[in-house]
Amino acid sequence: MPLVVPGIQSNSGSSNNDWMTKLMGKKLGDSHDEITFAKEDLPKEHRVLRPDSMKTMDHKPERMNIHVDDDGTVKDIKFG
Fold this sequence. Notes:
Elements: H1 16-23, E1 27-29, E2 36-38, E3 46-49, E4 64-68, E5 74-79
Parallel strand pairs: 1-2, 3-4
Antiparallel strand pairs: 4-5
């Protein structure tokens, strides 16, 4: 039987690729439009990391780390 990791390999959660498609190149804001994704639709466990952000090194597999550049545009997404 294959290993199924919720949110990564199963259909019950959103995968990293799904979030990359939704967020890459967009900014985070209060509503959706062509260049903005609403913050309220992000997973409960998330954090936004700017290039100069300090971050804890604890590993939480369910936490989405959203890496943005200096102007707030999403550049990368990782879980952990």
